[in-house]
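WARN retry 2 of 3 for item q-0093 after timeout on previous attempt; input resubmitted unchanged.
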Amino acid sequence: MPPKAAKTAAKPKPGAKQATKKDPKKPVQKPMKRKYRKIRTCVHFHRPYTLRKAGEKKYAKSCGGTESKKQKMDQFHILKFPLTTESAMKKIEDNNTLVFIVDLRCNKKQIKHAVKKMYDIKASKVNTLIRPDGLKKAYVKLQPDYDALDIANKIGILRRAQLADECMHSAVEISHSGFTNKGAST
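OK item q-0093 returned
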C-alpha cells in the first residue's frame, strides 16, 4: 500500500471571509475554570447568614376587642358534652366517674367548678387528657356520697346509651331474621 499523503491545510476560497476576533459570527471561547474544593481547617460548620422573613399569620388568634367582647369561660362553655362510649359507661358503673369532653383552654379547677355549678355535685378529683383528634377529655371522679349512675340518669347519659343499645340490638335481630328467612325459602 502506498503511504497516505499528509493532509494539507485547506486553502480558503477566494470569495469567503476569514474569521477574525472582531467577527461577531464566531463565538469567543473563554478559558475553562477548574472547580476546586475548599480546604476545611475547622470541624464545625456555621450556616451562612441569610435573609429570614417572619411568617405570615394564616388567621387571627384572638377575636380582638376588649375582654368583655371575648367569649367568657362559664360552665356552659367549659363542659361541651358527656361521653357515652362503652368505656365511659364502664367508668360510671365501676369507678363512680363521669366522662366529659371539655374546652381545650380550661384547667382542672375550672372543670371541677363547672360540674359543681351545672349538676350540684362535688368532684373529688379530675383527670384530663387531650385526645389525638384534638379534643380534651375529662374524667370527673365523684365523692363517695354521690352516685354516678343517678347523676348519669339525671343528665340523660344512660338514656342515650340505652337507646343506642336498643337500636343496635333491633338492627342485629332484623339482620338475623332476614338471614333465616332467606335460608328457609331455599
